[in-house]
């Protein structure tokens, strides 16, 4: 059984899964203190419309890795999910490229006050009891490493590893292929006793370096080919060609697909995504990418493996 916003769902009934999508990415301090940047009813209605459009293409489940640092609000997501027939699987964890939040810097191993890292207890509670008193349980863990392994990033990786050991929840890591930090994350998690077969190395689709990708696979992890539509980082045709090459090499069972899109992302000025990145939305994969993959020689069975079978195994 897999915990979702609407309750538990058998892993074999998740259907077609997009493995890395956000309902919202927000800065909650900005949102609360400068309300001119946010219209709650407008944003909720827009999210319902966008998610319904995704469902119309045959998507049954999205995996939402929005955690602390990205503006997680599962109550708002639950309100939206009540209007959309979609499984939304939410995460626990912490998103940072450098340090932990100031409120945690004096607590935990090696800090002024010492003791057990409070991050571990926070993550475990989200998985075993639920988030913020809602009863909605996280089903996986999320962390990030961008250009380098800072002390703060390593601390989060270690806390995620400990929470994984205590709960069995799988892990997704934001990484930078250009800096090959997927390998760094794998090494830190491996040292902490994580089974790398329960890890998705996120944003692996941002590169055509198949030697790097094969090394990640050889270490046991799934490749998150999860930024379709972000043409500024890598054009769709190059992403398609890379997946087709790996699938032809028998590695479809190590890849999962997604856009890393959102209904609204406060990192970007209103309207910028639609104008500058017109393909970065929830239906791009079904409308354009799957036909392109078929044209490149990827079989229906391989597509099912990436969209249905691999997510089921990851959560199973």
TrEMBL record:
Cofactor remark from the record: Binds 2 divalent metal cations per subunit.
Positions bearing N6-carboxylysine: 142
Chain positions recorded as Zn(2+) 2 binding sites: 142, 174, 203
UniProt entry keywords in alphabetical sequence: Hydrolase, Metal-binding
Cofactor: a divalent metal cation
GO molecular function, one term: hydrolase activity
Ligand binding (Zn(2+) 1): 20, 22, 142, 260
InterPro entries in UniProt: Metal_Hydrolase, Phosphotriesterase
PROSITE patterns: PHOSPHOTRIESTERASE_2
Family: Belongs to the metallo-dependent hydrolases superfamily. Phosphotriesterase family.
Name the record gives this protein: Phosphotriesterase-related protein
Native organism: Saccharopolyspora dendranthemae
């Amino acid at each position: 059984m897999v915990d979702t916003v609407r309750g538990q769902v058998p892993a074999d009934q998740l259907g077609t899964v997009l493995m890395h999508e956000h309902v919202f990415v927000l800065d909650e301090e900005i949102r609360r203190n400068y309300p001119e940047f946010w219209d709650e009813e407008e944003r909720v209605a827009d999210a319902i419309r966008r998610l319904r459009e995704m469902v119309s293409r045959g998507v049954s489940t999205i995996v939402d890795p929005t955690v602390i640092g990205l503006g997680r609000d599962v109550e708002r997501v639950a309100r939206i999910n009540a209007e959309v027939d979609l499984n939304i699987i939410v995460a626990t964890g912490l998103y940072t490229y450098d340090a932990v939040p100031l409120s945690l810097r004096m607590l935990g191993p090696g800090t002024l006050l010492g003791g057990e890292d409070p991050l571990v207890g926070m993550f475990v509670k989200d998985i075993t009891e639920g988030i913020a008193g809602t009863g909605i349980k996280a089903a996986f863990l999320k962390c990030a490493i961008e250009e380098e392994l800072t002390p703060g990033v390593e601390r989060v990786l270690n806390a995620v590893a400990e929470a994984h050991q205590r709960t069995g929840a799988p892990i997704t890591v934001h990484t930078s292929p250009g800096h090959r930090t997927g390998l760094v994350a794998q090494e830190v998690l491996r040292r902490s006793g994580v089974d790398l077969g329960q890890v998705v190395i996120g944003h692996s689709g941002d590169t055509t370096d198949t030697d790097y990708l094969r090394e990640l696979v050889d270490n046991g992890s799934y490749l998150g080919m999860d930024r379709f539509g972000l043409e500024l980082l890598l054009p769709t045709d190059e992403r398609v060609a890379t997946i087709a090459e790996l699938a032809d090499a028998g590695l479809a069972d190590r890849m999962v697909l997604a856009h890393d899109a959102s209904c609204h992302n406060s990192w970007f000025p209103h309207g910028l995504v639609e104008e500058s990145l017109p393909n970065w939305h929830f239906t791009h994969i079904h409308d354009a990418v799957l036909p392109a993959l078929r044209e490149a020689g990827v079989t229906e069975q391989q597509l099912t493996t990436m969209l249905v079978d691999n997510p089921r195994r990851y959560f199973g």
